[in-house]
Q: What sequence folds into this?
């Protein structure tokens, strides 16, 4: 099989091109063996399969929470509403206890489901793939749900380095 040619662009050009693709924003949550709640903001979420129900997301290999996510059996993908920009920023940047004052409930697996999320997917940590400077996580969805007002809620969207809502065309 022929190998890929070396890139003919700078890393910044690649990042700028990727930034043109609008993505939803999620917070991935889990619980460390110590009981500490762990959560990170991720926009790298996507569906994979309906049967079996599979989703994927990715995390930088250098992330401090990588050991917990790599070894845990379960996690929750919380899809954020536009009104939850503060949660997005908290789970992306805050050092210390990111869950302090954050309303959530334990899912069936004991992992935290964030109150107010438009949708959530409680996943078994089915497989992981080391690719480049990230690990791709494939989760088998055991339970999912949507907010009772999801039809009237705006999703939080990230595109071109900024956050947006989404208006119908």
A:
């Amino acid at each position: 099989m022929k190998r890929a040619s070396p890139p003919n662009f700078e890393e910044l050009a690649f990042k700028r091109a990727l930034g043109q693709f609008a993505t939803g924003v999620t917070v991935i949550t889990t619980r460390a063996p110590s009981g500490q709640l762990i959560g990170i903001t991720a926009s790298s979420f996507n569906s994979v399969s309906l049967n079996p129900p599979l989703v994927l997301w990715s995390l930088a290999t250098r992330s401090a929470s990588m050991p917990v996510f790599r070894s845990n059996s379960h996690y929750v993908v919380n899809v954020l509403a536009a009104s939850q920009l503060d949660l997005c920023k908290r789970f992306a940047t805050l050092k210390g206890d990111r869950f302090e004052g954050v309303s959530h409930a334990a899912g069936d697996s004991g992992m935290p489901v964030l109150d107010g999320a438009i949708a959530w997917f409680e996943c078994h940590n089915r497989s992981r793939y080391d690719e480049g400077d990230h690990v791709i996580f494939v989760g088998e969805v055991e339970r999912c749900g949507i907010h009772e007002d999801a039809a009237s809620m705006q999703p939080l969207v990230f595109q071109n380095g900024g956050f947006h809502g989404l208006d119908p065309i």
